[in-house]
Amino acid sequence: MIPSHVVNRPNGKESGSFLALDLGGTNFRVCEVVLDGHSGARVRQSKHTISEAQKAAPGTQLFDFFADCVYKFLEEGGPSALTKSYKLGFTFSFAVDQVAINKGFLILWNKGFSNSGVVGADVVALLQAAFKRKKLNIAVTALVNDTIGTLMSHAYIQPSTRVGVILGTETNAAYVEKMENITKYKATDGTAEAKEMLINMEWGAFDDEQIVIPRNKYDHKVDRTMNAQGKYTFEKLISGMYLGEIVRFVLVDLCKTGEVFKAGGSPELNKAHSFETAFMSRIERDHTLDLSDTRTVLEDMLKIPRTTLADRRLVKTLCELVGKRSARLSAAGIAAVVTKMNKLDGCTVGIDGSLFELYPHYSNRMRDALREILGISAEYIVLEQARDGSGQGAALIAALADKA
Question: What does pTM read for this prediction?
């Protein structure tokens, strides 16, 4: 439950041109978002890759590289674009101690980065200094979390949006909270009069004590064998990074006991992460009589010597169980948040990520679970596809950052 320092939500009438810099890891984007004042936006972007050498260079060189990319991006818009003034939102997907909407100190690097002079420093100030060296008239007005950005991006289209959720490779949620309920937050000059603030829940870490949600031995195995044991255990039940591995662990066990693949398993199946969550999606979409697409996944991709129809049906059922649990747990989280906000009379939830958008039946399973949990009130909870929180959402936060 991390205060975001974001105290303004869009109403769809915002207009103008704003920038976003989205650093998620090896890849990053520069975006220009033009808001039309009628809940519409036009986005122009460029994508870049950070080399291994750049990840190990001094920090000033890394931030100068970002400034160079922004300069070239603006240069494409003509000479006048380089002289204009802009506000920029910086989506920085690393652990930071954020003390204001435009100030955050890097706690530690990960994802292969080791640039010196950045840990313990204000990353907004480093980026601002790089823009100054490049003589760009850009004010970095917001340091942005992508889930907060998802809520903001969808609120521009649908102002009734009060919850933002990521359901993809990772999962997280954000919601709107009344200031008097945020006891850990000390108001600053810019937030003293605010009535509400967006909260980054980091809900992937919910129940890390493992006393609320039932877990089985395969869940514990995923937790032990993948990153950060004992941390983000809720995420490990839900997100796309982990679902395929849960299915793989079950299949390896069933193969050992002879309950599936009696012709034998395969070295491929025994490799960590070989059963991708994308395979689950493909298998759940397979409605052929002999489950031929499931056979392709098992025999051609996972190199299992021979499968029977009974094998394929079992695998499909297993994928359905793991996929359905993910959707239902996500829905339970949303139900809890909406209940906490006392918005059972009506709330829009903007959801970004490949699970919600692409995984078969995922959104319908979520809606079914909401009806089971909330009854008739579920009809007033609208789940909608949201897009580009780290780009459009970051630009919106930058645009609104200095408005009281």
Answer: 0.88
